[in-house]
Amino acid sequence: MEKRLNQPLRLNESVLDQLPSLKELLIKHDLWAKKSLGQNFLLDPNITDRIVLRTSVKDSIVLEVGPGPGGLTRSLLKAGATHVFAIEKDLRCVTLLQSLVEASDGRLTVLNTDALKFKLAQFVQENAIAHPLHIVANLPYNIGTQLLLNWLKELDLIASMTLMFQKEVAERIVAREGTNAYGRLSIISRYVSDAKILFHLPPEAFIPAPKVTSSVIQLIPKSLTEEEKYLIPSLERVTGLAFGQRRKMLKSSLKTILSEEQIISLGIKPGARPEELPLEDFIQLAKSM
Q: The pTM is what?
């Protein structure tokens, strides 16, 4: 053993690779996913490595939400992340992750807190993080959309987001006009970022297997001017009204903020329904407020 430890470690002989498998740890700690927490564990290192391969986390600070037993966390550390801050609400998983913390050579911090109550700006300030961080996460299904909406308002602090969603939600994020998936989430996401689906994962990739296919999606924040950032609240309001009554024509759903004449003056048909309008038209509607 001493001779082995004195030899240079190849990539597949790192300290992280010498840890027990995730399945062994789950059995040892008698820890299984809780439906109430939206947990579906991803244990296959080939898949977690594939996710991380599509990111730029080397020499960067990463925020992970819902690490569970730490499969994706291991891949992030092996990929050369400077530091991984993992937000985990489940105290059982926090305990299980301690062996990974010890093996990380000071590059992993587990934060036992609720991701929905986590204040990103405060966290960045308190930890003196000078550069935008990367968010990489297999998000709990029950809070994934709300977390994304929160982060879309703080993109100055974020370099990229590589996230796991239900396929249906991922398709809503990248949807274009004229499709059933197109809506408020599509417009806000596309206005502030370049979003694309990287690949899909079948239910059997997870334990327990969910009833839906999952998708890995990546969002890269756009460099918006101050004027473009100032428009976001108006864009949120316009899309909220329009898609809150998506079967109605614009002249009806937007009547509390824009008259029919104002809509016509923008070159937009007042009788159109929201799913027919491209992003550019919603930008014009927001500017007219």
A: 0.88
